[in-house]
Amino acid sequence: MALRDILTDPRRKVTLRDSSRHKAVELRAPALGGKERVSESFEVPGYPGANAKLVIARAGTPFEREPGRFRLGGILVKSRHAIHESTYFDPDLESNPHALWFYGRLVCPYIDDLWNDFDNRFEAGVPPEPNNPVPILDPSRQTGLTRGHPFVTALFREALKRLRPLVEEERQREERQRAAIESDATRKRLNALEKAAAKFMQEFGEEEETARDPDNTQVGSHFTTRGYVLSPPFAQMVREHSQRFTLAVSQEVFPEFEAGANVQIECVTPEITSDRRFVGLQPHPQQDGVLRAVWNVKALQATAELQAAPSPGAGLKIQLEDIDLKHQRSRWRQNVLEIAARHASVARYLGSKASGFAGQETKHFRLLVAEVVADAICYKLLAQNIQANREDYEHADWDQYYADYSKYMSQFLPVAHKLQCPEGT
Questions:
Q1: Per residue in 66-125, pLDDT tens?
Q2: Are the beta carbons of 289 and 251 closer than 8 angstroms?
Q3: Three-class secondary structure of residue 330 per DSSP
Q4: Distance between CA 281 and CA 37 in Å, rounded?
């Protein structure tokens, strides 16, 4: 990303040389063909004399989702002398697939002025100005502009006024294409799949399993394979509130533990405290051969902002989209599963746009949709469970991932098949 100005300068030639093989390759800037949609200069509010120029173009095809430092899409943010980052200015747009159509450049020389002003004041031991309270750039040059700096906030807000309408236009265009694909019968079947998938994800989500069984000692849980379980394995806590923790131990797996044995509780950070330092293992009131220790942990101070997360499967939607995702048959956009109608394996049975997507009612297409949806649902469920139980997958290999994925597929795929093709053979 940072080399694009150098690579596009006709006065320069950049060569990558392999001295061990005596080979050299000339590096060239990627050619991004597209149509310019915005070319506008504006003044940054609150900073008299701070002007910026924004150019946004729409590519012929959407870009791949890539890390910011290496992606082709996004808006390059540049001061007088350097490109600092590639961004869509807002976290919501960073994850918005419709934003991937756009690229461009935001040039603002005033970024250098603010950087130099802060640096000079720091060297002179003078407090910074309120409108320039922190360095505007990451000193390590890793993350670009400093989020939370008032100038960056004002600059990005103005850029978003020009970019958001373009992204919304793309969303509406795709929505019109989607509506044109699905027949009433297809929509009805997808509605049934949505309900079944949401129910399946709630039933098989690890958080739901913990909620139904606080000690997590049911057959089939991780307790039966490891012989012990800590529940919850990790927790987000509110300051001055307490969280109940339970350690369950199988005496069949660990016969050396008897009732009355002590468990030592240590808090490795001063932000939390336990109501007990030692807790005795006691017979589980409902499970034979299981010992249990229970204690409470209190949060003394906040270390992060807490945000509520929806339960697995909440608000799930499945849509048939007139899009081409190259190697992928589907993609997740937040809680929306989009099936790519232009993927070769889907288009073969769905039919062309010119035919009105006439293959929707064929058994081949309906069963293919069941396969695509089941694959995506089980993948997402596995990813959520790995995130919720990271210690269980710390040393996992591909075989374990595939075994868990296959377990979910064995449960959900027959349901999806029956909903898509109730008549059977």
A1: 765 667 888 999 999 888 988 999 988 887 888 999 999 999 999 999 999 999 999 999
A2: yes
A3: strand
A4: 68
CB 124 within 8 A of CB 53: no
pLDDT of residue 212: 40
CA distances from 123 to 119, 150, 232, 275 (A): 6, 22, 49, 48
Residue 204 dihedral angles phi and psi, to the nearest 5°: -105, 0
> Is residue 310 scored above 70 in pLDDT?
no
Q: Note whether 374 and 416 are within 8 A (CB).
A: yes
> Would you say residue 402 has pLDDT above 60?
yes
- Determine the residue type at 291: L
Query: Which residue has 């003394």 as its token pair?
Result: 300
Q: Is the dihedral of CA 127, 77, 7, 139 positive or negative?
A: positive
Q: Are the beta carbons of 108 and 78 closer than 8 angstroms? A: yes
Query: 216, exposed or middle or buried, with CB in 10 Å at 0-12, 13-18, 19+?
Result: buried
pLDDT of residue 325: 84
362-377: burial string, b at 16+ Cβ within 10 Å, e else: eeebbebbbbbbbbbb
Q: Which string of DSSP letters, residue by residue, matches 96-132?
A: -GGGGGEEEEEE-THHHHHHHHHHHHHHHTPPPPTTS
Residue 132 reports pLDDT greater than 70: yes
Cα distance between the two ends of the chain: 54
Question: Which residue, 399, 382, 2, 358, is CA-closest to 185?
Answer: 358
Q: Within 10 A of 240 (CB to CB), how many other CB atoms are there?
A: 10
Contact by Cβ (8 Å): 167, 99? yes
Bridge-based pairing of strands 242-250 and 290-299 is antiparallel
**Which token pair is 10?**
């006709």
Out of 175-184, 260-269, 339-348, give the one with best mean pLDDT.
339-348
Token representation of residue 189: 């079947």
Q: Position 125: which residue type?
A: G
- For 372-421, the three-class secondary structure string (H helix, E strand, C coil) is HHHHHHHHHHHHHHHHHCHHHHCCCCHHHHHHHHHHHHHHHHHHHHHHHC
